[in-house]
Amino acid sequence: MQFRSDNYGPAHPEVMQAVMDANQGYDVSYGDDAPMQQVRAQIREIFEAPEAAVYLVATGTAANALALATLARPWQSLFCTPEAHIATDECNAPEFYSGGAKLTLVGAGDKMDAETLRAVIAPFEARGVHGAQRGPVSLTQTTELGRCYTQAEVAAIADVAHDFGQPLYMDGARLANAIAALGCSPADLTHRAGVDALSLGGTKNGCLGVEAVVFFNPARAWEFELRRKRGGHLFSKNRFLAAQMQAYLSDGLWLRSAAAANANCARLAEGLRPVPGVTFLHEPDANALFVRMPRAMHRRLRAAGGHYYLWDAEEADLAREGGPVLARMVCDWSLPVAEIDRFVALAAA
Amino acid sequence: MQFRSDNYGPAHPEVMQAVMDANQGYDVSYGDDAPMQQVRAQIREIFEAPEAAVYLVATGTAANALALATLARPWQSLFCTPEAHIATDECNAPEFYSGGAKLTLVGAGDKMDAETLRAVIAPFEARGVHGAQRGPVSLTQTTELGRCYTQAEVAAIADVAHDFGQPLYMDGARLANAIAALGCSPADLTHRAGVDALSLGGTKNGCLGVEAVVFFNPARAWEFELRRKRGGHLFSKNRFLAAQMQAYLSDGLWLRSAAAANANCARLAEGLRPVPGVTFLHEPDANALFVRMPRAMHRRLRAAGGHYYLWDAEEADLAREGGPVLARMVCDWSLPVAEIDRFVALAAA
Amino acid sequence: MQFRSDNYGPAHPEVMQAVMDANQGYDVSYGDDAPMQQVRAQIREIFEAPEAAVYLVATGTAANALALATLARPWQSLFCTPEAHIATDECNAPEFYSGGAKLTLVGAGDKMDAETLRAVIAPFEARGVHGAQRGPVSLTQTTELGRCYTQAEVAAIADVAHDFGQPLYMDGARLANAIAALGCSPADLTHRAGVDALSLGGTKNGCLGVEAVVFFNPARAWEFELRRKRGGHLFSKNRFLAAQMQAYLSDGLWLRSAAAANANCARLAEGLRPVPGVTFLHEPDANALFVRMPRAMHRRLRAAGGHYYLWDAEEADLAREGGPVLARMVCDWSLPVAEIDRFVALAAA
Amino acid sequence: MQFRSDNYGPAHPEVMQAVMDANQGYDVSYGDDAPMQQVRAQIREIFEAPEAAVYLVATGTAANALALATLARPWQSLFCTPEAHIATDECNAPEFYSGGAKLTLVGAGDKMDAETLRAVIAPFEARGVHGAQRGPVSLTQTTELGRCYTQAEVAAIADVAHDFGQPLYMDGARLANAIAALGCSPADLTHRAGVDALSLGGTKNGCLGVEAVVFFNPARAWEFELRRKRGGHLFSKNRFLAAQMQAYLSDGLWLRSAAAANANCARLAEGLRPVPGVTFLHEPDANALFVRMPRAMHRRLRAAGGHYYLWDAEEADLAREGGPVLARMVCDWSLPVAEIDRFVALAAA
């Protein structure tokens, strides 16, 4: 009963097969391989962005830090939420890659509000040369707490960023889950809503380890290539990254997997909702459910082999007395329905 | 009627004389000059710290950024208040010099509270390698809003920092004003209260441009010297920095100037307190007064040549309608009493 | 007839199988996976280093830059040869990761000589705080020109580095080829010869993309983990890196592949040596041959589908007139013998 | 008899007077002061560059590192000579401020030759994304070995830099000495010869500590201002930097001082030239003389109070036996002629 993270899951058979198939004889290194040509074409078609610059890296931290460093300058501040992965889970990677840019936290929680952003960014340069300068705005779609931004919400935030001459970046580690949940087109949810660059995650949704970075405006594409190289993120055998992404984007696998993960989460929520003592931080939009439950229930689930992440790490101590715990339960596309139901039954027992 | 900032003021005649006197013939460059030997001895004696490593730089930003970079590592977070100069007024200098460390803002406003710090720092490393690691704590004494930390307040914060193995740094751009205001010994207010390193400002209190950096524990002194050099802050003619600091620390000039500035501020507060429509953000501890006053009064004072800084820069537009403004009035040691009284009279008119 | 680079080659079937096998169900992310435990044990056993800290990354640039940044400080200079990959082919990755360290080039060409190193490093800090400080020494084994350092040569260089308190790092992108060529034990050629840390390449020798970083002295292991994370090189699904390395180190696959590559190169050299007009830059020690040949021969080979890298890129212009060209021919483990013979026959034609 | 360095010398009385005069009452901080307006006008007039962006910092390392970081990108290489101050004496300041750019050393010694530069820079980007990219070229005028570039030499180097789209920077720590020696106009020797940006040193030629940074093309002026601030090099009491530079540039003081220093050096050379056993590394162009002399003469001069710098620091050990020593003798503008003659007499004794 593995709900700890979607990065605990396996790669999808179609992705594995593509990696096998890519292992035939010799191919050009460092990104000029045949599969990469196809990936570029696939992403430009899927996002209806024929000019887009498309690159692959192996981790989400690399995708975010390299893209943001390319969009920002060292004396600027990025704008993101307090729960943003780039703020909490990347060990200062954005600060490192950007050469010392700052992160200004907007609002509270995981989801940014356009008006709150405006209130923060508008007076930002009042101190002239003394203060950090305005920089890119970064959204996470779906958010770190499993919620989606609608196209309208993204557009409202993009308007604020653009009003101040700043680009909007989308951390799309789980973008597929949002598109599957919202049922809108990739183009509508991104560049048509004002997103200037994004990452498209594959690792958490059926790949071994690959993320695409997409610049809808390719003006700084060469700078990105240099940053990727000096960051050590240009693969000599790039074909093995490209093969994953190629299969991932073929026959809608990326959306099929995301829909499966979302459905698993919905089933889990449905099962847990009526359980006495259980409450949700909020209704899940995609594949992550945040559940507050009695400590006794938590102990029972753990003892029975239920795996999930306690949001307040301090509560991880099972021996510790105290009130309810807040658990993050992430559903992978590969999760067997029977496992979900068994988990729910245990909780309800 | 110049209350805009103490860095608008002149240098003290005794400091100027010392600079003249240092201009005799040849002296060794890069910090081995005779005046520097004396400055080192003076600071060790004044702070009762015979082992202290003592250095000079020309700006407060250099002092803070170099000292904090020496105390921190790039993957750590510093801890300071939202009003901290290092967070708001140094254009990411701490992030730059540290190689990408983060600043985590503790509490609200200008003054850090030990318990609030503990609540922030205690769970800080729950995310292991993924999150920023704990780093140094930085206090500003006196604060950016003109308040002092008592010895007990400093000690309480130092205890929290030390409980988590982190050093306490004191941004002492206006440390002299705090010592003059509190009437305690430099040693008691700093290393005896747990401060591990500090800057001692001269620029805002009668010097041309000099700040001392003091490490009570000299373990990383050589690293600081290398950072100062590669930062371009090692002066070939260091004697002209040393001469300023030498005079500043002689015959208690640094405390005489600070006391004069504090007295000027007290006189200003006394004069403005009874004026209808005037309120203070808080009672001033040192030489900075934060005054809320009707916009009409502000216009009258400006028109008559009253100079001060509007805390909300957007209010700077005189034409703009609206409610009261919040003004920062900083009193320099050199301010003529008559000027203060004239300003008060204008406000009361 | 593909001699352009060993990173053009496929992954070994045993490695692919291990990746398949690792794709079963759920495993812990970020390096606590089961395959990683085995890789750590394998490397400690193979190198007879029970205390060694062992990590995996996906690229050679990441391995070098992260390891060197961990061993160096920003105000130091690294020491390497003018042909070193870290100096010529990593787009300033060492400077970037180290926070601004310098590379001082020792001697000429690809192979460092202990006495030349001593002559460079001995007077290095004569300028005190003004000059860059001494830092780690980096060797590439086998070198960028396909030569090996003997155990004695490594030890002599290590002695110089250690005489000045600096660690010796070995860029082992092709270390397997050197061990296979020299027939000595991994321990003898590395830590017993004074190597303090190294990278062990898999990518160029039968893997998809994986390099091990080994610190024989684990003192800075945690710092490396933080640097790897903030560099974006910590894989969530680390098991897919570990599976590659596990298979690579099982049943001597890493040495079997290296020996095959070396044998292919020896066969190529044997075939080309008697061809009129052909000379070698030097006899190959491992799997890279540097061949000087008449331009006409070069044109003929290119036309017939012979692929290799022209060392002087300017010569790549086939239309260009002029004397002989210098070609780098790298032999992959997977190269069919018939292809080598066909290539030789073409050259001799 | 002080020939160790021109940074051992005093400030000129006219400069000191200007600093005194600037210490009247209140002035705007951070560079908007009245003296700064005049300095900007003076430099634009002297260099016949009405559009030039002009800034002041306090050290030569700050001027070079900030200007070069503004002109370069982190993935580029700067080009300078092996003797360049930025390469040997700034503890990696250029690497630090640029965010990890590399320095490629052109030729040997102190003076760059256009053809040698072309041979280095032309094939520089043959490795594409893998190698460092071309960056700015930096000249030191006068060189670290006391020689001047003629206008024609500067122009030839500028042509090479511009042919490859790179700017030419001039480290002008001793630019005044070159202009005084060559007798050409500041404009002819700089922007008319193709120099894009430069530093104009005051510290070594009669100031307390001030260097101007001039961008003939102000396109990146705002970036420089942000870099200066975050580097801690923006002075709150900038008026004390400006006052020095203002006096320095008034009534030709900068050229008067430089001419005096050059004349002192010529007198020293004239006196030492006939002394048996004395040879010059080359004839001095400005105020630095490099003298090879017997060790016994060196001992005698030292014992008698002769101060200079031994170029091979290892020779500094007086007890050490061995052949002749190479001494750098720098003549300050303030050096009494009698001291020079006494020194010469001692050498000839």
How is the secondary structure organized here?
The structure is a homotetramer of 349-residue chains.
Chain A: H1 13-22, H2 34-46, E1 53-57, H3 60-71, E2 76-80, H4 85-88, H5 93-98, E3 102-105, H6 114-121, E4 133-140, H7 151-163, E5 168-171, H8 175-182, H9 186-189, E6 197-201, E7 211-215, H10 221-230, H11 239-248, H12 253-272, E8 279-280, E9 288-293, H13 295-303, E10 309-310, E11 325-330, H14 337-348
Parallel strand pairs in A: 2-3, 2-4, 4-5, 5-6
Antiparallel strand pairs in A: 1-7, 6-7, 8-9, 9-11, 10-11
Helix pairs in contact in A: 1-11, 2-11, 3-10, 6-7, 8-12, 12-14
Give an overview in words.
- The structure is a homotetramer of 349-residue chains.
- Chain A is α/β, with parallel strands linked by helices.
- The first copy, chain A, is 40% helix and 15% strand.
- In chain A, the strands form two sheets. In chain A, strands 1-7-6-5-4-2-3 form a seven-stranded mixed beta sheet, with helices on both faces. Chain A has a four-stranded antiparallel beta sheet with strand order 8-9-11-10.
- In chain A, strand 4 (133-140), helix 7 and strand 5 (168-171) form a beta-alpha-beta unit.
- In chain A, helix 2 packs parallel to helix 11 and helix 6 packs parallel to helix 7 (151-163).
- Chains in contact: A-B, A-C, A-D, B-C, B-D, C-D.
- The interface between C and D is medium-sized, with 28 and 28 residues.
